[in-house]
Amino acid sequence: MFCFPVTPTVLSDERVVLEPFDLSIHGEQLFNSFLPHPELFTYLPWGPFPTLSAFHDWHHKRIASDPGSTLFAVFPAADASGAAPAIAGMIGLLNSSYTNASTELGYIILNPKHHATRLAHRAVRLLLHWCLDVPSEVEGTLGLRRVEWQAHTANVRSARVAERMGFVKEGVIRWNRVLPVEKVGVGRGEEKEDAAVASERLKLRMGDGKPGRSSVLLSLCWDDWEDRVREHVDKLVETFA
After folding, report:
1. pLDDT in tens, 59-93
2. Residue pLDDT, tens place only, 21-46
3. Which residues form the N-acetyltransferase domain (predicted)?
């Protein structure tokens, strides 16, 4: 059970719809959408998922069992024909704290055919409004104080999207994750050190030689949102075709 109430049940604008993720409804659709594109998971500490069962296991461990995490299924809005659109991807919140009135925006993965459609920006805007608008002004919103965004230091595109949406870079959290052996990480492309040498050195740390990740930390806080960023985000998204 997510630590904040997920209301309203659907977030939407004229181009995108976010539905609270239901594994029984959205799971297979999402898995099939991601299956041909393992590159989507290059900078993430998990995935790609070789089987639907593996995706189910990830969802249970990372989402369903964690009160700090929740997911939304991302859909394009229905066109004039009224036909139900195919799922575009997912977006969610993690590391959420009711006590600290904070969350982190993440799990943002869209099928490559939607990368040029600005659906991701629109989905981010919807979640920012839901998280940062106050309930006394917009019914069903959370009125949080802080939203974070973390990105692999090699994933420059992700950090740029966050900054474009008004997030402020606070710094780099060095070596904050241990990654699976097949992932890109510190000593595996982020630094000039030879990968084989780096792996041998890492074996002295917990004995496994797995690569590590450093993360760019960005944030958007309630006062930034009210003073300037809410208007900036709305204007930015409305400029998209």
Report:
1. 999 999 999 999 999 999 988 677 789 999 999 99
2. 999 999 999 999 999 999 999 999 99
3. 15-168
Residues contacting 157, CB < 8 A, separation 6+: none
Alpha helices for the chain (secondary structure H): 23-34, 52-59, 119-132, 156-164, 195-202, 222-224, 230-238
Which structural domains are found in the chain, ordered by start?
11-238 (3.40.630.30)
SS3 147: strand
> Residue 29 is encoded by which pair of tokens?
């659709």
Q: How many CB atoms lie within 10 A of CB 21?
A: 22
pTM (predicted TM-score): 0.92
Q: Taking the CA atoms of the chain, what radius of gyration do you get in angstroms?
A: 18
CA distances from 31 to 25, 27, 60, 68, 191 (A): 12, 6, 14, 23, 33
Angle at which helix 119-132 crosses helix 230-238, to 10 degrees, equals: 160
- CA dist., res. 238 & res. 216, Å (int): 27
